[in-house]
Amino acid sequence: MSSHNEQQETWPEQRPGRKEMSRRQFLTYTLGGATAFMGAGAILPMVRFAVDPILHKKGEGDFIKVAEVAKITDQPQEFTFELKQQDGWYASTASLIAWIRKDESGEIYALSPICKHLGCTVGWNSNKDHPDEYHCPCHGARYTKLGKNLSVAPKPLDQYKTKIENGWVYLGDITPNTEANKEA
Ligand code: FES
Question: How far is CA 167 from CA 65, 69, 156, in A?
């Protein structure tokens, strides 16, 4: 009798306890899984939205039509052109300058006007004391026709990658000057 009574006392305590635990776990997992699923559904589009500009290429390697080949002479000429930029979600248009000339063999070169000292804009033949040179008005840097640095600036002017197509000069990325070292 006493053992039957003990069983009766202990059973009700144990069985609901086990059932309750199991149901709680089941509900926890189910609700947790559903919440995670819904959370992922809400967050993933936001993540996609945030990284989307990074997934798109910035247009590196693109070329822009700048000048007619027929207009290029052995004297550097200034050409301005526009570059459309995408910085994250911010789209803008930058106005750029190139000094374009051709050499004796007809090869076309385009120099960046950004002074390699502190970034001012150089001009061709703008200093009467030093004709046929690029001159920077900020601190007096001077460069040869090929962009070789003569004073103040530590490096030659950079050059644009160029491409000739259907009678037009196309300009691409700015790269270190390879032509300047040809000068003695
Ligand atoms: S920025 Fe050109 S000389 Fe200083």
Answer: 10, 5, 28
